[in-house]
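Section 4.2 – Deliverable D4.2 (structural model, holo form)

The reporting period included a commitment to supply a predicted holo structure for the target in complex with flavin-adenine dinucleotide. Inputs used:
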Amino acid sequence: MDTGIVVVGASLAGAKAAEALRAEGYAGPITLVGDEQERPYERPPLSKGYLLGKEEREKIYVHPADWYEEHGVTLRLGVAATAIDPAAHTVALAGGDRLPYSKLLLATGSSPRRLPVPGGDGEFVQTLRRVGDSERLRAAFRPGARVVIVGAGWIGLEAAAAARTAGAEVTVLEAAELPLLRVLGREVAQVFADLHRAHGVDLRFGAKVEELKPDGVRLGDGSTVPADVLLVGVGISPNTALAEHAGLTVENGVRTDQHLATSHPDVFAAGDVANAFHPLFGKPIRVEHWANALNQPAVAAAAMLGKDAVYDRVPYFFTDQYDLGMEYTGYAEPGGYDRVVFRGDVAGREFIAFWLSGGKVLAGMNVNVWDVTDPIRELVRSGRDVDPERLADPAVPLTEI
Ligand SMILES: Cc1cc2nc3c(=O)[nH]c(=O)nc-3n(C[C@H](O)[C@H](O)[C@H](O)COP(=O)(O)OP(=O)(O)OC[C@H]3O[C@@H](n4cnc5c(N)ncnc54)[C@H](O)[C@@H]3O)c2cc1C
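Output (structure tokens):
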């Protein structure tokens, strides 16, 4: 007997899974359980247009409010799933309810990491993950406010851009020598350092944060950087507690196969939380980006319904900071490439960077250059050897490399 499909995590991946299940023709009960009060919404605007006050709240939602009822999807919002029992096929909710399921999707996403220093979990420390966080920061980003951001990753840099645009004084403290060094490598990381310095951000590298205090950050050299607003953006951790306690295989996220099935055949995972075997790379990868949460659920939904679906999309993400727009297509791990090739005007921030390993393109990033994602994806997917000189030459079309 079909007792229905339960999705834990009512955000982008969860909502897209419900949509895909109905699109596949599934007519049984679907319940979407989420511990936030909001219906599913998208997070990229929270550090961009919504944080800047340029985008309306209504625009952030995945579906209109009446979509769920119209599609027979039960929303259980503001309630956490506290345990899953794969043998009994049940999900326990805070408050005592227990939901039966035939198939379960874990779309629990991830949560901001805290700094393991005194004051690291203080109430005055802000993180940026939920819509309320974005609204608090938006109100605090005022002309002259001293905003200190710990961590020069994507969230930290986008927030820095929004704070500067609002007229705040912004200091970014980063332990490494450059922003985004681990993900982009030295050559491209420098572009982002130059961008933020050009906009008046006080970027401090090699910073050792010793303590977070309501009025500032104490550093290893004994100095304190005064702060009216203190934001920590030092990465995220996948929300794996339910899977771990249920005995599912968890390694850097919930391990799945290429069909997004976990180690229990009736439990699937998608989005930030899934460390999914990727046929193109021949190993599991966990992608903490929007496009992954958007597209994986269709595969999980089909697989839950017994169809032979495989997730093998080339990873993709984007960022907007000041007047810089960027898309990144592919997957280059820190230390996994041996060469970076630039095409275009790096100083003018209008270029494409390619990460290569042994002549193959692992990833490409277009900065203020548009409509090139398809050929970059094709270069990555093909795995063929390319001539770096032709790759660097803007006169050679990307489709002819
Ligand atoms: C501010 C910000 C900006 C971003 N910008 C970009 C960008 O520019 N480009 C890009 O590619 N990506 C971006 N991302 C990343 C992107 O938003 C994520 O990859 C995406 O949100 C992942 O979706 P998800 O549904 O897997 O998980 P999440 O969005 O994390 O959602 C998981 C949901 O599950 C809920 N949940 C967890 N555990 C439980 C439980 N036990 N019971 C009930 N509910 C639970 C959580 O509260 C949450 O609502 C950004 C992220 C943030 C925070």
